[in-house]
């Protein structure tokens, strides 16, 4: 099943900061985060160098994806960490997986 929309979590090199987003093109969005981190630093992800993908979920509906993004953003850090651990226990950077 192909998904048209994604909720994703990116982090910085030291895995200390998390950014949660939603997109219809995860590869393009990761490229935008990387570019902003290395150049303009105008977004949250750019300022904190968050462009390493560590978690993602696929959705068929943008409404469902946005609801999930909002849900995750409300969670405490510990709960987000547990979600990431269940999906990616070693917190490996998954950027190459989605290209």
UniProtKB/TrEMBL annotation:
InterPro entries according to UniProt: GIY-YIG_endonuc, GIY-YIG_endonuc_sf, UPF0213_domain
Alphabetical list of Pfam families matching this protein: GIY-YIG (PF01541)
GIY-YIG domain boundaries: 3-82
SMART domains documented for this protein: GIYc
Keyword match Hydrolase: yes
Domain of life: Bacteria
Keywords of the record: Endonuclease, Hydrolase, Nuclease
SUPFAM superfamilies: GIY-YIG endonuclease
Gene3D superfamilies given in the database record: GIY-YIG endonuclease
UniProt xrefs under CDD domains: GIY-YIG_unchar_3
Gene Ontology molecular function terms on file: endonuclease activity
Family: Belongs to the UPF0213 family.
Protein name per Swiss-Prot or TrEMBL: Putative endonuclease
Species: Saonia flava
């Amino acid at each position: 099943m192909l998904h048209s929309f994604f909720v994703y979590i990116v982090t910085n090199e030291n895995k200390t900061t998390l950014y949660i987003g939603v997109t219809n093109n995860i590869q393009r969005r990761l490229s935008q985060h990387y570019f902003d981190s290395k150049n303009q630093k105008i977004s949250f992800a750019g300022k904190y160098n968050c462009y390493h993908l560590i978690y993602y979920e696929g959705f068929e509906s943008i409404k469902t994806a946005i609801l999930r993004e909002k849900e995750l953003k409300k969670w405490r850090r510990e709960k987000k960490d547990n979600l990431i651990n269940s999906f990616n226990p070693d917190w490996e950077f998954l950027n190459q997986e989605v290209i």
